[in-house]
Design brief:
This protein has about 90 residues and is α+β, with helices and mostly antiparallel strands. The chain contains three helices and five strands; from the N terminus they run βαβααβββ. A five-stranded mixed β-sheet has the order 2-1-5-3-4. α2 crosses α3. The radius of gyration is 12 Å and the shape is globular. The N and C termini lie far apart (about 40 Å).
Length: about 90
């Protein structure tokens, strides 16, 4: 089962990718994806994800079940850094 992951800002720099297809076990959650990416890219990944918006198919993960959000084949997960204005 694969999902598409899009990286922006510091995660794009860390991973060296704008997007990546990630294979997961059957019936994964967003937490499973974060765990796999953390192991792949190290503790720096986990630090950079803190404070980022995570969208699953265009919806903020906090409205779809948080880290327990189920992921399905073909889903798109986007990591967006916070935006500051002034």
């Amino acid at each position: 089962m694969e999902v598409e992951v899009l990286f922006f800002g510091p995660l794009r720099e860390l991973t060296g990718h704008r997007q990546e297809r990630v294979a997961l076990h059957p019936h994964p959650t967003l937490a499973d994806l974060l765990d796999l990416l953390g192991r792949r890219y190290g503790g720096t990944f986990e630090e950079k994800v803190k404070g980022m918006r995570i969208l699953v198919n265009g919806r903020e993960h906090t409205f779809t079940g948080g880290l327990a959000t189920p992921l399905n084949k073909g889903d798109t997960v986007v990591f967006l850094p916070p935006l500051f204005g002034g």
